[in-house]
Request: fold
Amino acid sequence: MRMSYAEAAAAALALEMQARPEIVVLGEDVGRGGIFGQYKGLQQRFSAERVIDTPISEAAILGAGVGMALAGLRPVVEMRVVDFALCGMDELVNQAAKNRFMFGGQGRVPMVVRMPIGIWDASAAQHSQSLEAWFAHLPGVVVVAPSTPQDNSALLRAALACGDPVVYLEHKTLWGTSGEVDPDEVATLGRARLRRSGKDLTLVSWSRQLLACEEACEALAAEGIAVELIDLATLWPWDRDAVLASCARTGALLVVHEAVQVAGFGAEIAATVAEALGCKVRRLGAPRIPVGYSPVLEAQSRIGAADIVAAARMLLR
Reply:
């Protein structure tokens, strides 16, 4: 069936809540459906005891989620946008991520923390950040970044079944995108998606940046360059086997992400491939500047299809 990115997430969560009474939702405005409609109808269906509206305190929301998880529940913690989650980072970094290790597995934190990432049109520097590399750097958490409505259904269901804390990164401007969704599919965390096959270049990306990559693949195909496009889907653990196998065939890797290029997660992928295969590698990300409010300044932080095409040409020279 055809669904939007938001509808797919809401439907997947409803399926899991129906099957698992231990799943609860907590966050600001979840009772009215969330600011993107990703919880639409859930409080009416499952009651305010399971879809819980909270005060405006990210530390309290995340802290309550950690406590619920340790007590046997499976909380879905809504942070509205990743930028707001910074107010509750101690609860994630020092409590949720480390509990299983510090207590020898006696405690588990099966919690899904939803933190929409990315440039939010005309929303400026404090509401337009892509911070996935922060969480990939953090031992003890799983990091997921769905790019399509299908993935936002299948990966959310997989995240809810995970026994460890999952940082779940939906893009702020993907909510209205639509596509065919099989609600019965449950993804495997750590497995990439092959979006396009090709022999000349491996292109790796995730989240909303896939849209620009797909456009670039079409432009490059018109020039006779066959690109293999891989959507990581899960950033940690990431699918090394799929990426290395593709790069072994093509001999060249371009990693593209919306996040700032400096110390971005693309560097980890590029370094891993270079060390394992010695093939040509290149990264492409945003400049190290805050995202501007005006359209002209905001555009400076965006990586478009033309930028990807130019980087691919340079790599293949």
Summary: The longest strand covers residues 252-260.
